[in-house]
Write a structure and sequence with these properties.
The chain is of the alpha/beta class. It has a domain at 38-66 and 74-229: 3-Layer(aba) Sandwich (Rossmann fold), CATH 3.40.50. The chain is built from 11 helices and 10 strands. The protein has a 6-stranded mixed β-sheet, sandwiched between helices. The protein has a 4-stranded antiparallel β-sheet with strand order 2-1-4-5, with helices on one face. Helix 3 (105-115) crosses helix 4, helix 4 crosses helix 5 and helix 5 (149-161) runs parallel beside helix 6 (179-194). It binds adenosine-5'-diphosphate and magnesium ion. Adenosine-5'-diphosphate binds next to strand 2 and helix 1.
Length: 282
């Protein structure tokens, strides 16, 4: 049994809305979830299902209304833990422009470790190393605002890597990017997981991105509706449709073929797998 990176126990969160009746909005409703060290977990769910609220609990940006969140065993509600938790679990958001603070790439990447009070020689080392990990080292003296969206997100990722986190939580990091930017960011995320063992929690709307995960968690109305491997999740086409989500196109095609009486597996996630399955039909 692997160690937990993140553990949510009976997590509930309500936003208090500032109106006369003190109406509260229940955004997370009794979530139990464990994420192991080194795991690549994708979180899917319709708009408003609580994904971003859940993500913000994973590095103590939000604190539970009830229940607990532990990051490497540290309780997020203990004030003394917050600094450590933020260093262990970094976050990358949707809009790269909101995450860039400096006018030169390497200064931007250095910003996090500078705030940690790290020695300048060590910072230099970390900045170079992080830029190399995201394939942006050649751009170290460029101006970030001139880069493409995908490159800006890779700079944002380098900035987090420079803090040497054990886990990175991505909240729709590709939502504002064009297809090529999306590809380079997902490749970077996969790489830092597989090569450097960093635990990844990725929130996305793109099913092709979810196919790559070790495990998928489906959120619906503030609850975890289902979790499983990509095959377990996507072969349940009815469940996915019931919460307003799509499955990868080839999976849907397999499902439709099966419904019309063709003997084909429904656990097809990629075009290659579909081609294989079709070629084996008798
Ligand atoms: P998702 O990321 O899955 O779209 P969110 O976590 O952003 O979902 O939102 C979950 C629920 O909480 C939604 O109903 C949303 O309207 C509500 N919510 C989100 N942020 C706030 C806020 N700052 N104040 C009040 N309600 C909020
Ligand atoms: Mg969101």
């Amino acid at each position: 049994m692997k160690d937990n990176m993140i553990k949510c126990k009976d997590l509930t969160f309500e936003y208090s809305q500032n109106n006369e009746n003190e109406v509260k909005k229940l955004a997370i409703d009794g979530v139990n979830l464990e994420i192991s060290k080194g795991e690549f977990v994708v979180v899917l769910g319709h708009n408003g299902s609580g994904k971003s609220t859940l993500a913000k609990h994973m590095n103590a940006l939000l604190l539970p209304s009830s229940g607990k969140v532990y990051v490497e065993g540290l309780d997020t509600t203990e004030q003394n833990n917050v600094w450590n938790i933020r260093n262990k679990a970094g976050m990358v958001f949707q809009n790269p422009d909101n995450q860039i603070v400096a006018t030169i790439v390497e200064d931007d990447v250095a910003f996090g470790p500078e705030n940690l009070g790290i020695d300048p020689i060590e910072i230099r080392k970390r900045v170079d190393e992080s830029l190399k990990k995201v394939g942006m080292y050649e751009y170290r003296s460029h101006a970030p605002h001139l880069l493409s969206g995908g490159q800006k997100q890779r700079i944002a990722i380098a900035g987090i890597l420079a803090m040497r986190p054990d886990c990175i939580i991505f909240d729709e990091p590709t939502a504002m990017l064009d297809p090529s930017g999306r590809k380079e960011v997902i490749q970077t995320i996969k790489n830092i997981n597989k090569k450097y063992g960093i635990t990844i929690v990725l929130i996305t709307h793109y099913m092709e991105e979810a196919v790559e995960a070790d495990r998928i968690v489906i959120m619906d109305k503030g609850k975890v509706l289902k979790e499983g491997t990509p095959i377990q999740i996507f072969s349940d086409v009815d469940m996915m449709k019931s919460v307003g989500l799509d499955v990868p196109q080839v999976t849907e095609l397999a499902f439709e073929l099966k419904k019309s009486g063709i003997n084909i597996d429904c656990d097809i996630l990629t075009i290659d797998e579909m081609v294989n399955a079709l070629c084996q039909l008798k």
